[in-house]
Specification:
CATH topology: Alpha-lytic protease prodomain-like
Strand content: under 5%
Mean pLDDT: 81
Number of helices: 7
CATH class: Mainly Alpha
Number of domains: 1
Number of strands: 0
Length: 217
């Protein structure tokens, strides 16, 4: 008599990760909606953050806006995996995103040290966009993580981590902007930017190794 053993979650997950390359997974309505909202939000967030950074001469806002651009690329990668015509290998996309994060961490650290005590201006626009990010990004990260677990989708799980990282960076940047707005201490912006560097490095390492299923790349 044959016995039936239910496969564990790792087996299901790895089976999903190593699906046949010539059969892209079906794009669900939930994932399409989540990534469309993410892309639209990140375009606005990136543009506002970089504009505010230029106006206020804020290194922390520059780091936050640049990370928004990487999050935009990450969301686009999730959609590309469902395209039969422009199928993108997730391993290559993860390595490229990781290299960008490592480079961004180096650039932010260099600029933060160079711009130490450089005069900046209070940025109400920067404070507003980081507050908005703190409200939006944790919710998007939670929805993506739940959907990734339901579909065993490693790309979406990694993108959920990117969204959570964006929220962490928003908190660090907001703290620096508010501190400067109240006390006008010139070096606080550089400190806030340097505080973001470990977050970028950790996220770069996670993206390089792959997130979500725990399967080999």
């Amino acid at each position: 008599m044959s016995t039936y053993s239910q496969p564990d979650s790792d087996d299901l997950c790895c089976g999903s990760c190593h699906a046949p390359a010539n059969r892209p997974p079906a794009l669900s309505r939930q994932i399409a909606w989540l990534q469309t909202v993410t892309i639209a939000w990140m375009v606005v967030e990136c543009a506002i953050s970089l504009w505010a950074a230029a106006q206020a001469h804020s290194v922390a806002l520059l780091a936050f806006g640049s990370d928004s651009l990487i999050e935009l690329l990450s969301a686009a990668v999730v959609l590309l995996q469902f395209s039969p015509r422009f199928r993108l290998k997730k391993a290559h996309a993860e390595r490229a995103a990781a290299i960008l994060l490592f480079a961004l961490a180096g650039v932010v650290a260099g600029i933060a040290v160079f711009a130490y005590r450089r005069p900046m201006e209070t940025s109400a626009l920067g404070i507003g966009v980081t507050i908005a990010a703190l409200l939006v990004m944790p919710l998007l990260a939670w929805l993506k993580r739940r959907q990734a677990q339901a579909m065993n989708n490693r790309a979406l799980a990694a993108d959920a981590t990117q969204s959570a990282t964006c929220a962490y960076l928003a908190a660090v940047t907001l703290a620096g902007l508010v501190f400067y707005a109240v006390w006008h201490i010139a070096w606080v912006d550089s400190v806030a930017a340097l505080a973001a560097v470990p977050i970028l490095l950790v996220e770069g390492r996670r993206t390089w190794s792959g997130e979500g299923c725990g399967c080999g790349v």
